[in-house]
Each structure stands twice: as C-alpha cells, then as structure tokens.
C-alpha cells in the first residue's frame, strides 16, 4: 500500500459517490457505510494516480531489425486490387539473402499481424487505422528464413466472421468464382494464395479462420497446436482461441513455413510448452509412406444435418484413398464433438467481449499499445460502424456475464473434457478426419450498413461446426483440398472441397505426412470437374 501514500493524496479528481456508483453497476447498492465513503474515495484517487504514472512511463517495444527496410508502403488503388479487395497494404520487405528455408518464396500477412510502419485496419472503420512500431514475432522469423513479404491482406471485421463480405475495406471474392465467398476471417490471404498470386500467407484462427478460407479457396491451411506458433504482435480475439499458422498451395510450403515460425517465444507465455525455435524440421521429415497409420472417420463430423451430400462424398472418397497408401481407415464416433459449437460460442463470446472492450488480462506478453490507443472506449458512433457479428459478440458477452456469472468456469471445464476425450481417441488413432466445412463457398452477400443483422449473419451460420471445437481444445488441424463440388445455387459452378485432418497435441508431423502422401498421390484439381477424375466409392457412412 505504500505506493499510494508516498505523496499527499487529492481526491478532487474523483466525484463524490463514485465508489458507490461503481458498485451499483454490479448490483451492490449498500456495500459501503456512509462513514467509509470518503476514505474509499481517497483510495480510488490513489490508484488513479498510479494509473496515470504507468501511462506516463515509456512503452517497451522490440526494435525493428534495420536489415529489413520497408519499401513502397501504400494502399492499393482499385486497379491494383485483386479478387475484389484482397490487399490491405502493399509493400516490399526482402528477407535474409543467406537463408534457404523460404528463399524465393513470397508471403503476405493477415491484417492483424503487426508490421512496423504499416498501418492496420483489422477489417474495420469503426476506429482509425493504427501503425505498429514493432514487428510481430512471426514477421521477424519469416524474414530470417529468407522470404519476401509483399503486403498485408484484408481480414474480416475484427476477425469476427467466416464470410468475406464483412470487412469495411471491401468484399473479397473466391479465386475460383467471382461473387462467391473466399471464407474468413483470413479472406484476402487465402484468395491470393488460392489464386496463385502469392506463395504463402500467415493467418490467424480463432474458430476456423485459417481452415475455412483454405477450404473455400483450395489451399492447404494449418492451425497448429495452441502455443506452437507465437502470437506476439497479433491482434487478439482471445488468448485461449488464438492460433497463428500458414496457408499455401502445397503441404511442403506449409511445412517449411511452420519450420520458420514455430517455437518458443520469450514474450508469449502461450509458447512455454513449445519446442525451441529452430529445432523443428517438419519439411525435412515429410515422408510419402504412411503405412500402418490409423485414421478415424468421425461420424459426427460427416453426419451433421447441414453437411452437403456432394461435400460428404468428395471427402469420403479422399479419405478412403488413404487405404491405397497403406493406412487403416475406419469409422469412429465421439458424440461429445457435437457440443463443440456450443462450448466455443460461450467461451468466445465472453472472452472475446473482454478483449474487444480492452478488459482482457491474465497473460504475459508484449501488447500493441497503438491498437489500444486507437480503440478508445466504445461510443455510439464507433459501435454503429461495426459489422453485426462484432456487435453481436459484445451484446452476447455482456448479457452472458451479467446473467450467468459462473458460466465461464463451467464452459472451460467442459472444454477440458472435450480436449481429454480427443486425447484419449488419439491413443488409438493417429488422425481423425472429417469435412473442413459442411458446404462449398456460398455466394457473397451484398451487405450494406443498416441491412438486417440476421440477414447479414445467415450466410456464416454453421460453417464452423467442425473447426471451432479444435480452437477450444487446441489440437492441430489442417485443411487439405481434395476436389471440387457444385455450388448449391448454381451446379455449373464447381468450388473446392476441404478435408480436415486432426491430430493429437503437438502431432503436426503426422498431419503433414498424411497430407503430403495424399497430395503426392492425387491431383485434387482433377477431381469433381468436367473431364477430370471422379473417384466413386461405396460410401460406408
């Protein structure tokens, strides 16, 4: 307490009755005796003095490596844009010329990844863009690995959507069919990779935001084990759900990027269980042989009522192709999988709201004070500019915390049950397999501010039934393109289908090996298209 009383305390900055007013907000109307009020007012003034002192201290940031200057930072014109509005900012940063791991590769970054000197939008115009003063850890690492970074790419509104029409910076189109969703929230990066413009994108995944757009755009997208890839310097949805990972057109490029970005980070306590940076060699260890691998087809992942029949058939065909590669493939069931969306929804709404309101705490790390300064307390004007999904998160979270104060603890207990149940399943199976998304990319919505909230949210409903659960459990999961299926609105339009491979905690190598073996033995771009290869099998599910 001595820090409060090193100098005389003035309570003039604190209105009389402020302590009582604060308590009334949580339902306590008679918690302070009148005789105590002035002293609690003094104590409140003292802690405000401490807060002002901390705000006046110099911030602590990581210096930018002078070896990697930023060149030609600019917001692309409409003529320079691709797939609608895929780019946030274009620029050039050349990586280590002596490195070989990612030499010759181009890379883009989701617009929630900090690049010093490059303004960030985070998919919104509710707050002004801010400019980071430090690079995210993943940025420093890919530059050391020799990559050339060519820009940041559009993400959806506060990363709160798996559609690609919610960003205030514009709609992103699927590279295989204009007017169709590229998925979200890593929409721009997936479109550019799937369209062959950039080799690799680094995305973020809190409910499927790497895997969903990878599935829609025909990319390989990996959400690693929670904590394997540092999240330092990335705008957070929630520390429990935050995952960063690579998106590419080949498994080899995904594995190489994972080699570059994975490993313990002194700034991020989520990585304390990760191997040392530089010790992983996923790309070197890739092998075609998966003889003896046991793969389980998750009944609950295929049999959900909204899974499209063509998607189901395409993924099953791809799954049974593993048998030709020497793996055992059989059906498995985990009924608790169906609780995943409910558990994710409650956990994400509560924790996500605290993050959006600047109230998240409990983690060690280096955080973006530039972002916090830009996102001042919400007011009518800024809140009105949010996309309905972000508004809904805050409204839901405030209501849940008010009405169910013990709900978060119960939710996290069931989340641990989900994690343990899957870990038990992985004692018997190397991998679990299911469709990444229940249907191919839907059409983009022509949403305008002021349109119906329900209409705005409807196209995204159900997309994450098989992805969000693994953000809660933390298990690694990869979406692999395995063919094309017709659009539900126009059967003449064929769109990519993603197969999700899920492994035990820290078992990325098994996932990458299986995906690499399948990719090497099959040409997914010829499956399900006119004149291509249609693999028909006897469906067992």
Automatic annotation (TrEMBL):
Pfam families: Amidase (PF01425). Residues 99-512 form the Amidase domain. It comes from the Eukaryota. One of its GO terms (molecular function) is catalytic activity. Signal peptide: none annotated. This is Amidase domain-containing protein. It comes from Periconia digitata.
